DNA sequence: GAGTGGTCTAGACCACGCG
DNA sequence: GCGTGGTCTAGACCACTCA
């Protein structure tokens, strides 16, 4: 931070106004992180593109490279950005070959997920609907607001394994069609980035064991006494804004849900 | 350690001998991290105790404070130590009040885990046994090696919710008794630290939906048609050595398994 | 060889906890 | 007021990528 007229904010923000009760000291690198985050949100750099070099950003924000570095370190730890030595720092995307299907934790008992390949998708329906009370609450909408409801089956090696319903805010996903859902190659979340500019950043899952009803059992080709994993996922974009509610039923006779605890 | 003859390695290790094929460049802070890790393993500092200050360690290893800092940062990220500003850096322990039951992801539908309080434990049995092929493989033992098998029920608010079996290497857990399992207040993993010097550092879980057999159903007070979550956990100490295989059946009518995806 | 991220250092100062 | 971790800087050099 140095000698020229302060156009960037940090210089001023250095001494935050002492809030009544919570002093809320915020280190410089956190403020820088916030600024970069804002640019990410506003789409100044698109998924897959590189962001400016650390030196450039340091110049832009009038801080040292080390401070920018620490800000980017955190963004990288949150998977918002990917660092590649010698090349640059890139906006993370679900279209990456490496961490594809980042949020899908279902693995095959035999072999590994790579040889199994991507799931075959069958879209059962995709239509506009009104948000029920619970869907509205999850997506931070009002009951009755327009949502998109999609239902589909994912099969691995020809075996139907996942039956899921997706609820999306009608606002952000206006025009989403069954064709779009079915035809896009690669992760659905990559399609959301490309077609709707919506980037899923993190998600929570609530998991239960359940028995399917008759229709669900038929869709998955199992009996009604076959226990299934019920996975309710709430996915968020930037700013912790919920953007997708997904309810899945997973068969766990050929696959298992994997979780690494630290 | 400071102005004396260099017994610490890093100064010498600074220029690693170039291995035949893989140069395997290892940054200084990684080497420091390894040294600290070794001290943790060897019990130079016990769980809950503080480790030397960054300055002290910097002196001991003859590197700058920043380098020690980065090493400790990684250890903290892996939950092996806990930093407390103004106080020091402490060896992590499962006995901490804050992150108690770190590996238990089952949450109540109503209210939160704190008001629910710790589970009531009923130890069904705890005895020596011979490792079956699959248990031996999981624990990196040989089939027929001695293991400890414990079975217990955990209840929340008086409702039996978890039925689980624990397999432990006989070597490390010699003498573990049902009384010990039942009487210790707090996480079982904290008892393992205290009584056996075994610290669980991370774990993997494989989750499936299953139906209980008659005995299991009775233990949990549910019918045989009640789907349950089967949670197979493999817990590791330092060095990725597996030290516990745990197979649990979770009721998910009053609780759910929570997972945060990043 | 130029440019990018990655490491390392040395020193200054800040926030926090505690006696 | 002291010691601890936390932040910030400035500068040097290293490893990697690509033209």
From TrEMBL, chains A, B:
<keyword id="KW-0238">DNA-binding</keyword>
<dbReference type="InterPro" id="IPR028978">
    <property type="entry name" value="Chorismate_lyase_/UTRA_dom_sf"/>
</dbReference>
<dbReference type="InterPro" id="IPR011663">
    <property type="entry name" value="UTRA"/>
</dbReference>
<keyword id="KW-0805">Transcription regulation</keyword>
<dbReference type="InterPro" id="IPR036390">
    <property type="entry name" value="WH_DNA-bd_sf"/>
</dbReference>
<dbReference type="InterPro" id="IPR000524">
    <property type="entry name" value="Tscrpt_reg_HTH_GntR"/>
</dbReference>
<dbReference type="Pfam" id="PF00392">
    <property type="entry name" value="GntR"/>
</dbReference>
<feature type="domain" description="HTH gntR-type">
    <location>
        <begin position="26"/>
        <end position="94"/>
    </location>
</feature>
<dbReference type="InterPro" id="IPR050679">
    <property type="entry name" value="Bact_HTH_transcr_reg"/>
</dbReference>
<dbReference type="Pfam" id="PF07702">
    <property type="entry name" value="UTRA"/>
</dbReference>
<dbReference type="InterPro" id="IPR036388">
    <property type="entry name" value="WH-like_DNA-bd_sf"/>
</dbReference>
<keyword id="KW-0804">Transcription</keyword>
<protein>
    <submittedName>
        <fullName>GntR family transcriptional regulator</fullName>
    </submittedName>
</protein>
């Amino acid at each position: 931070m140095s000698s020229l007229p302060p156009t960037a904010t940090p210089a001023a923000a250095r001494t935050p106004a002492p809030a009544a009760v919570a002093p809320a000291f915020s280190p410089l690198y956190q403020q820088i992180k916030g600024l970069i985050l804002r640019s990410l949100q506003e789409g100044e750099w698109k998924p897959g593109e590189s962001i400016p070099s650390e030196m450039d950003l340091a110049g832009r924000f009038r801080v040292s490279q080390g401070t920018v570095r620490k800000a980017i370190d955190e963004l990288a730890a949150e998977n918002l950005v990917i660092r590649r030595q010698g090349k640059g720092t890139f906006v993370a995307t679900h279209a990456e070959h490496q961490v594809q299907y980042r949020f899908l934790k279902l693995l095959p008992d035999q072999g590994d997920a790579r040889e199994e390949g991507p799931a075959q998708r069958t879209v059962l329906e995709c239509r506009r609907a009104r948000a029920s009370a619970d869907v509205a609450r999850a997506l931070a909408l009002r009951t009755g607001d327009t949502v998109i409801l999609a239902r589909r089956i994912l099969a691995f090696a020809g075996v139907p394994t996942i039956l899921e319903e997706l609820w999306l805010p009608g606002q952000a996903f206006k025009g989403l069609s069954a064709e779009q859902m079915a035809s896009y190659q690669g992760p659905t979340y990559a399609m959301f980035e490309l077609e709707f500019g919506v980037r899923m950043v993190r998600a929570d899952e609530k998991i239960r064991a359940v028995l399917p009803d008759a229709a669900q059992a038929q869709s998955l080709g199992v009996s009604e006494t076959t226990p299934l994993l019920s996975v309710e996922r709430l996915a968020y974009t930037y700013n912790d804004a919920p953007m997708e509610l997904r309810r899945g039923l997973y068969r766990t006779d050929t696959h298992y849900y994997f979780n690494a605890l630290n």
